[in-house]
Amino acid sequence: MAPVVVEMLEGLNLTIINGRCQGDYPGNYTFLGNMGSSAIDLVMCNDLAAEEIHRLEVLEFVSDDHQPVSIKSVANKVGLTSKAYCSRTNKVNKPWFDKECTAAKMKAKIALREMRMYGFDERLRQVFLVKRRHYRKIYKERKSNYYATIREDLCNSKSTRKFLAAVRKLKPKSLPENNTISEEVWIAHFEKLLGNDNNEEEPNFIDCRHPEMDKCISLHEVIEDRRKLKCGKSPGADGIANEFLKALPESFQSLFLLLFNQILQGQKPPSAWGD
């Protein structure tokens, strides 16, 4: 192990527990790659947590190079934790996962189990890698063919029924709802837990408007901007040329002032201005 990792573990008072617990003695590989195997996925804990860990297992997983790690604490063993009960649902494989995929996956799992049983023997490791590559190849081919068939159905569908049938294959299936607790029971529970006081208060927001940037437009600004209008320009959607606007009497500027301030305060300019 690199000295920098050892130094970090000592500084943080952490201990690597791979290979030191029941279920993982003297230590299983957590990475099984084509170039080699290693225990690169490390589980670390401090002294207090180490006393609570009852069992550590490296699980069997053939879909990835890394193997998942499972930890069971003493609290689970002596019954200090509650057990979660979930409704039992049948596990459904991907639609492209056919019998050949199932058989290839099972052969790879058997090869993995046999390799671990005999101490990661190199010959058995090579057998496992071959079977895992075969499983991944079949899985990838079936998945690619499945979506290629859907694309072909979408492109060649002659009726709405067939087109929608192909689209439905792409939509994820919604999870079944299994909520047996009524809304009234939920409300009563939280009223008992949190109280039934309805303390609605108006939020006390701080005025964040800028005294200069957010103040109303002045008549002087309207007159100055009108003076800066350039002549000879094409008119907008309303067909009014700049020359006409500049020729208007001063009494009309109060109407422009009212218009611009209403837009500034309401933050809704006319839709035609965006054309």
Automatic annotation (TrEMBL):
Superkingdom of source? Eukaryota
Quote the protein name from its UniProt record.
Reverse transcriptase
Q: Write down the species.
A: Allacma fusca
